[in-house]
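Changelog-adjacent note: as of this version, every example in the card shows the full chain rather than a window. The one below runs 208 residues end to end.
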Amino acid sequence: MRSKSAAIAKKQENQFKKIAIFSFVMLFSIFLLFVFFTTAKAQTTLETRAMNEVSKLLKDAHEVGGNQSQLTSIVKRHFAVGTWSHALLGKEKKNFSSSQLQEFNRLFPAYIAKQYFKQFGGSGQSAGETTGASTRRGDVLVTSKIPSNRRTFKVTWRMRVIGGKPRVIDYSTGGISNVVLRRSEFQSKVKKSGAQSLNDFLKAFIAS
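Full-length structure tokens:
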């Protein structure tokens, strides 16, 4: 009798364990689904915000055309200038005096504005449009098309939330990163001729 009772108790214990394991697996699966859909929703929301930001940038830049002052203000609104500065100067930043670094940070938005107008012309019949977005390592890559009189540029903008807002930390055309290209150019100038030579280059480019 005792043996039979023990067998029944053991069977009940095994059934209880199976139910407990099954319940844990189900709850964990539901948790993972919740995390997945919450993350996916957050990414979708961020991608939408990033696309809207790029659309606003393209529209604003198109409207002011070649007005250097207004285009510089647009760059300051939409670009993470401090992030660009850090990425472009890298270890060469140590070669700048405090005043030289302040001058670089003042000149750089105007440099980007001038480069933007020279590169994309601002002469197309429309402001351009965003065509898609995807999340990569926490940043959002927004693809776009910018028409000019001669061709349509395909530009990918790397956006990062800084100060609660998606901002441009890089853009590429033809798969070539602007940050990577300018970093090599800028650091080479600093190594060869010093920090002031880079600032003088920026001033000459802006005035051209």
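Structural remarks: The longest helix spans residues 2-64.
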